[in-house]
Design a protein that fits this description.
mainly alpha; 2 domains; 0% strand; globular
Length: 407
């Protein structure tokens, strides 16, 4: 099972390079397309999302492996260039419908909506995927195993497909040549998909080919300024709130619903459906450039250098957790994943000036350093252990100096 995780461990550093390159280009050309707080929140949700890859890989290995072993129609489909393209088309076609259902069915929107909660469009937004969407997506790719595609190849192709989708999330690339725009999903098409402009809602679901949208009536051209975000957003930098905001909304309605059958139906009904006995939803007012109010709370003072440093450390920790050739055992990866979640939750608290951050972050720094030394100490040179200790000490001092008082 180690090999099927390789694709994500390989593509993650490449994605980070693209994010850094876009930041540099925006700085050089003086384009205000990336805010620091949303950048950190995007990375935080991405790091948390990567921790579920182990679960997804296990599901693919067991469930898809069983289906492939017992029910495949074709034996020995090797990844020649034409089979590669056929598998890519298969994944893309299935994902079009999964993506479309993700905007129309309550429980699937709960899984997908964290990605749309971003109020900007840049490569870092592509990283803002929910921890449940990847699990949901793999409920639908199993027919490819019945054809005869190997689970390892399906899993790898979904990673490649995900990276193709990553490249659409930018405002730096304008519309491309007409034949490209007609056939493939481009940044222009995907900007429309992220728009809350009424004319853009629920359009352009394709990730590789835009022809699915043209065929099934969900295509829309980009011809006016796109307003990014979602209606009824989480208004939080906390990755838990970002990931489970709409689940909580559905849960509250399910608890309040008077009829038992409606408590169950709610999760599988279209967006906007109301259980009997509950008040109808208020009409949505279209967000425009004039009335948009982006979520921008005040962070603790001197938070940026601290968050940049710990973002770098968080990425390193993530790689130890997800890399197939990591020296860590499975139980160590789980502990590392829990530490990673504690880390990204604290980032949200720092950017929102939460009172609990001071104690929570100091606890994290202490036990995180102990874990790092215990897990990696034998493999680290002594000077790196000293550096790690110094970083932890400076971080603790920084917390007590700057994260004690409300700004």
């Amino acid at each position: 099972m180690g090999n099927i995780g390789n694709i994500y461990a390989t593509l993650t550093p490449i994605a980070i390079v693209f994010v850094v390159l876009e930041i540099i280009l925006c700085w050089y050309y003086k384009k205000d397309l990336i805010s620091f707080e949303e950048l950190i929140a995007n990375f935080g949700t991405a790091l948390g999302n990567q921790t579920v890859n182990v679960l997804v890989a296990a599901g693919v290995f067991v469930v898809y492996g069983y289906l492939w072993s017992h029910f495949r129609l074709i034996d020995n489909i090797e990844m020649t260039w034409y089979n590669f393209l056929l598998l890519l088309l298969g994944v893309d076609f299935i994902f079009y419908w999964v993506h479309r259902w993700g905007h129309h069915i309550n429980i699937m929107w709960a899984a997908h909506s964290p990605h749309h909660s971003a109020e900007e469009m840049n490569f870092a937004v592509a990283l803002r995927a929910s921890v449940t969407q990847r699990l949901f997506s793999f409920f639908f790719f199993w027919p490819l195993t019945l054809i005869g595609f190997k689970p390892v190849d399906i899993y790898a192709m979904t990673g490649i497909h995900l990276f193709i989708a990553f490249l659409h999330h930018t405002e730096l690339i304008p519309k491309l040549w007409r034949w490209v725009e007609f056939t493939f999903t481009t940044p222009s098409h995907h900007r429309v998909h992220h728009g809350v402009n009424f004319k853009y809602l629920d359009k352009n679901f394709g990730e590789f080919l835009i022809i699915w949208d043209r065929m099934f009536g969900t295509f829309e051209e980009e011809n006016e300024k796109v307003i990014y975000g979602m209606y009824h957003p989480p208004h939080s930098w906390n990755p838990v709130s970002i990931n489970f905001h709409y689940y909580r909304t559905l849960w509250r309605d399910a608890v309040a619903a008077p009829y038992v059958i409606d408590k169950f139906k709610l999760w599988f009904m279209p967006l906007g459906w109301r259980p009997r006995g509950l008040a109808p939803l208020e009409p949505i007012v279209e967000v425009t450039p004039a009335n948009q109010q982006k979520y921008r709370p005040t962070a603790f003072g001197h938070a940026r250098p601290y968050l940049i440093l710990h973002l770098i450390l968080g990425v390193i920790l993530m790689m130890y957790v997800i890399k197939p050739d990591s020296d860590w055992a499975t139980w160590q990866r789980w502990i590392g994943a829990l530490l990673l979640w504690h880390t990204i939750i604290d980032w949200g608290g720092i950017m929102e000036s939460k009172k609990w951050v001071l104690i929570s972050e100091n606890i994290r720094l202490i036990y995180g350093t102990i874990i790092a030394v215990y897990f990696c100490g034998l493999g680290l040179m002594s000077q790196w252990l000293y550096i790690l200790g110094i970083v932890a000490l400076i971080s603790i001092i920084w917390c007590w100096r700057y994260f004690r008082q409300q700004p």
